[in-house]
Backbone:
């Protein structure tokens, strides 16, 4: 083990031989950086942070105090400009089957305090995961997902783009794009209309999404109709919603 002598890395930090650290990275006191860690340009690591296992941190990421990222057998990739707040744990626990899967955190994400992310999780770009959220094994979140505080996403579920999950919810199934969900167990309350308005310029697109939503998710998932719409509708957002529903684990509507 060795301590880096550059002025922007605190003398109390331990950096193992083999770690790759860009010249402008700032690392605070009492951190541990493992031999297979790579920190790219512009990153900031505050005090008492642990990084170990195969961890690649892209440029301009900020990791706040007491975060723990990685274990001896983990593989983790963190996209650029992501902020990881205090006491976050990413891949710090061994998976139940002792076979840790790669964790991918996209770019421009914001992980608030005490978030826990387990093996195999994939988080696309521009997501907000608020305080004390837990993402179990193999959860997949598409881009621009917002998860309210104290919520849990159970293992092997997928959250579609533009979904907003209310606070203290427990999500036990796939959630299609653009939905607003909450509760324990979480249920779909409607469309995330505010999110759609921020994202879509044409009001007609929102109205069409509302119409399709009612047809394929009015009372359980009509997966046959959803696939037909996905195959025939030219609107990219309608296709995204319908194809997701058609292949989801949501309970099939009884005809």
Residues:
């Amino acid at each position: 083990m060795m301590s880096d002598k550059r002025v922007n890395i605190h003398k109390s930090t331990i950096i193992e031989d083999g770690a790759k650290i860009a010249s402008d990275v700032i690392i605070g006191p009492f951190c541990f950086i493992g031999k297979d860690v790579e920190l790219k340009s512009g990153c900031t690591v505050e005090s008492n942070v642990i990084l170990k296992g195969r961890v690649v941190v892209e440029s301009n990421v900020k990791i706040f105090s007491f975060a723990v990222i990685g274990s001896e057998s983990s593989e983790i990739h963190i996209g650029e400009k992501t902020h990881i707040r205090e006491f976050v744990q990413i891949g710090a626990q061994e998976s139940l089957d002792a076979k840790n899967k790669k964790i991918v955190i996209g770019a421009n994400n914001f992980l608030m305090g005490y978030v826990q992310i387990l093996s195999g999780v994939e988080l696309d770009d521009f997501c907000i995961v608020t305080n004390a959220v837990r993402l179990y094994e193999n959860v997949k979140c598409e881009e621009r997902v917002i998860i309210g505080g104290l919520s849990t996403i159970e293992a092997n579920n997928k959250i579609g783009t533009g979904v907003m999950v209310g606070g203290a919810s427990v999500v036990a199934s796939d959630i299609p794009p653009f939905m607003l969900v909450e509760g324990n167990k979480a249920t779909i309350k409607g469309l995330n209309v505010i999110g759609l308005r921020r994202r879509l310029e044409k009001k007609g697109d929102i109205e069409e999404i509302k119409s399709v939503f009612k047809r394929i998710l009015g009372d359980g998932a009509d997966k046959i109709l959803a696939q037909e719409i996905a195959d025939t509708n030219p609107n990219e957002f309608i296709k995204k919603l319908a194809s997701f529903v058609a292949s989801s684990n949501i309970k099939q509507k009884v005809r």
